[in-house]
Prior knowledge:
single chain, 191 residues, alpha/beta, 7 strands, Lysozyme-like
Amino acid sequence: xxxxxxxxxxxxxxxxxxxxxxxxxxxxxxxxxxxxxxxxxxxxxxxxxxxxxxxxxxxxxxxxxxxxxxxxxxxxxxxxxxxxxxxxxxxxxxxxxxxxxxxxxxxxxxxxxxxxxxxxxxxxxxxxxxxxxxxxxxxxxxxxxxxxxxxxxxxxxxxxxxxxxxxxxxxxxxxxxxxxxxxxxxxxxxx
Length: 191
């Protein structure tokens, strides 16, 4: 996989919002696609967001063990986590919210998490987002000033605008954040 934000394949999602003025992104919001964790899942998800029957949803990027595909420009608003859409960047991961930590950390799972951590680190560096996990209490308390990495489940618990629980309690958040921090430090960011 070519690891450059500017070189990522791009498949434009049908549904997103282009803001009238630039928005400073403050959050990375992690999701699960509810699709098998395998190569080709990112292409499937990008096609789902861009196809003729596209849902009223989108994400900025889709990640699987082999690639990252961008679907919405970073500065635009993807429709991925009500309550955090405006300031958040949504990253969809191949896999299911029901996964255990063992299912997330198979060889393919680790390859996907590595791709995602690289992407998150690049975005944290670009937008000066701290590599800190924010739970629903912290999100609710900070509102639109929240800065860090969170999940769709935490956004839902904070703002009560959807019923999603992804990427699930088995997602290896501690290991993921350590990997994001490593990539951010390698990129010269302060993690």
